[in-house]
Amino acid sequence: MMDIKEIVKPENLVYGKSELLIDTIMHYCPGCTHGVVHKLMAELIDEMGLQEKSVGVAPVGCAVFAYNYIDIDWQEAAHGRAPAIATGISRLNPEKFVFTYQGDGDLASIGAGEIIHACNRGENILVVFINNGIYGMTGGQMAPTTLEDMVTSTTPCGRDVDLNGYPLKMTELVAQLPGTSYVTRQSAQTAPAVRKCKRALKKGIRNVLDRKGTSFVEVVSTCNSGWKMSPAKANKWMEENMFPYYPLGDLKDGEKGNPVSNN
Amino acid sequence: MAKVRGAVVVDTEVCKGCELCVESCPEGVLALHLEVNSRGYHYSYMKNPEACIGCANCGVVCPDTCITVYRVKL
Amino acid sequence: MGELRLMKGNEVLAEAVIRCGCDGYFGYPITPQSEIMEKLMERQPWTETGMVVLQAESEVAAINMVYGAAGTGKKVMTSSSSPGVSLMAEGISYIAGAELPCLIVNVQRGGPGLGTIQPSQADYFQSVKGGGHGDYKMLVLAPSSVQEMNDFVDLAFELAFKYRNPAMILTDGAIGQMMEKVELSDYKKRWTEEEVVEKNGSWATTGKPASRQRNVITSLELDSDKMEQNNLRFQAKYRRMEAEEQRYEAIQCDDAEYIFVAYGTSARVCQKAMEIARDKGLKVGLLRPITLFPFPKNIVKELAPKVKGFLSVEMNAGQMVEDIKQAVYETQIYRKVEFFGRMGGIIPSPGEVVDALEQKLIGEEK
Ligand SMILES: Cc1ncc(C[n+]2csc(CCOP(=O)(O)OP(=O)(O)O)c2C)c(N)n1
């Protein structure tokens, strides 16, 4: 029998923490998707050698403290305005890799205007969109993305579409805009999904470096504490309920200037 | 028979016991410990270390990046 | 001697912006200041100095573009008029809270609401007392001529960077639309990327090299003790502005018994009113605040013992008059401080101002 000590040696390392992830305990609830996506962004910026080129824009939402976790320059946005802030940064510094990291309340509700116009102008930025169907930070209220009949703290009897309208598919909307070149919907609940999500984010980053216009990566996510489920159960619930309405896959992969999907 | 052996090191103080690594392990290596860390979380540990193949799925899904994975070819 | 031109206030401002080495402008059209962006777009400074000009989808977006761009350590600005500036209030509060330099131009029109497109000074409180949420201040400069629309651009940027604080040029539709002779400033080069890093690399999002800690631009601090420390630091900065930056013009105040206090367009009216009053044998001076924050209260305090009273002349319902009263109160001497103003986009006439002086200040004495 081989001793663990024989295996645990630097030369045998196959997976470890990226150096760009700051050594601190994240404030997220156990099992939160934000942590996984933060990690992917840190790994990619690290692997692609972009630390000095990167500026992240943190949202208002649970990810407001993203700047405490990835060792790059950051700016913290007003609620929903991250795409405008990223526009300002990127227009003045076109050689930089600028990305926003936004929740669904931030991006699809209060910031619906800013995201549409940034994507329509084809701002050379990556948008990372965490769609957990809920307002996490403020205590689990309805988001524009909340599914029909889904219970939240402001839809205690479930989302009634007559009262609250329909779950908003931002990614489909954004894919229609000629300013976007890459629009995709991913998830991060299993190891294969995380690896795939990482490839999508990488493509988005590459597009920014190649000045291809806006890249938009939605990550269908869980908010297990907001949904009042265990992390594992939340993943299952997401697969069963979120994926049918928010189907995974690329919506657009091409060149800026095309209004619709050309993949 | 697997031609590789793996090992997982959990930073038990950082672990929040979300159990996603346990779920993701194809070989049933991981489990949550009966004991808790200083923040009150049951942390993940290798319950069946011999079964580990170093696939790193646990590390990949871990939201708190508290898992380091090693692998050797036998 | 710089280049002499006959130009509109708004256009001069745009020209001055390009010439002072500004890096970026983000704005949204609104009367009576749309010429600023129009002029910039016509001039295409990106082909000349490399300055970025972008029409945003709203004032909310414009101010947040400025917030992002200011975070990079460069010279950036926006301009708008009253309703648009209200929309910017949240963003300005973030900029002040994150201690970023930028220039905001408000070419005021009458309110509240959609109000009128005619000139007004009704945004005095909004500009000098904060406007958005939280305890913050902007440096506020009030040009009263087309020449000052040129001169204050550079000054505003200088102060904004000196204090890492938003600066505002608070003007109104009359000055924005007025044509006057102006001596344009000479061109200054935009800062190079290296200069930006050298000057502002300690805080700006210039990209994190191995040699420094990451820079984080934020106004958020959940730890109350630390947040209070931040607030105290801001307040200390505002007090420093008050100590060092009070600017004004005092015209014929030396022998004056009565002082008109007015800025911007109403100061121009008061200049004429002063001449009429002097012709009538009344000893009247004009104190024209140039900085509205910091309010030039030292000169008010200096004048108070020597004069019989002050008349604040404003194009609003009486806002700056409160700052004059406060300054006079601090002298512990009683002096009359009265107000005269017109609203709705109406510019008071010099005759009206003299009448007000006679009725409100002099009349009572008789
Ligand atoms: C102008 C403004 N309105 C409201 C809020 C309160 N607020 C903070 S976070 C949030 C919702 C965030 O939800 P989401 O974007 O879905 O992100 P999550 O927390 O789920 O990651 C709200 C409404 C705010 N900070 N600012």
TrEMBL record, chain A:
Residues 68-219 form the Thiamine pyrophosphate enzyme TPP-binding domain. PANTHER family: 2-OXOGLUTARATE OXIDOREDUCTASE SUBUNIT KORB-RELATED (PTHR48084), SUBUNIT OF PYRUVATE:FLAVODOXIN OXIDOREDUCTASE (PTHR48084:SF3). InterPro entries: 2-oxoacid:Fd_oxidoreductase, THDP-binding, TPP_enzyme_TPP-bd. Keywords: Oxidoreductase. This is 2-oxoglutarate ferredoxin oxidoreductase subunit beta. GO terms for molecular function: oxidoreductase activity, acting on the aldehyde or oxo group of donors, iron-sulfur protein as acceptor; thiamine pyrophosphate binding. Gene3D superfamilies: 3.40.50.970. It holds the Pfam family TPP_enzyme_C. GO terms for biological process: cellular respiration; small molecule metabolic process.
Automatic annotation (TrEMBL), chain B:
Pfam families: Fer4_7. It comes from the Bacteria. Residues 6-35, 43-72 form the 4Fe-4S ferredoxin-type domain. Signal peptide: none annotated. Keywords: Iron, Iron-sulfur, Metal-binding. GO terms for molecular function: iron-sulfur cluster binding; metal ion binding. This is 2-oxoglutarate ferredoxin oxidoreductase subunit delta.
TrEMBL record, chain C:
The keyword Oxidoreductase applies. NCBIfam families: PRK07119.1 (NF005507). This is 2-oxoglutarate ferredoxin oxidoreductase subunit alpha. Residues 256-352 form the Pyruvate:ferredoxin oxidoreductase core domain. SUPFAM superfamilies: Thiamin diphosphate-binding fold (THDP-binding) (SSF52518), TK C-terminal domain-like (SSF52922). Residues 15-211 form the Pyruvate flavodoxin/ferredoxin oxidoreductase pyrimidine binding domain. Signal peptide: none annotated. One of its GO terms (molecular function) is oxidoreductase activity.
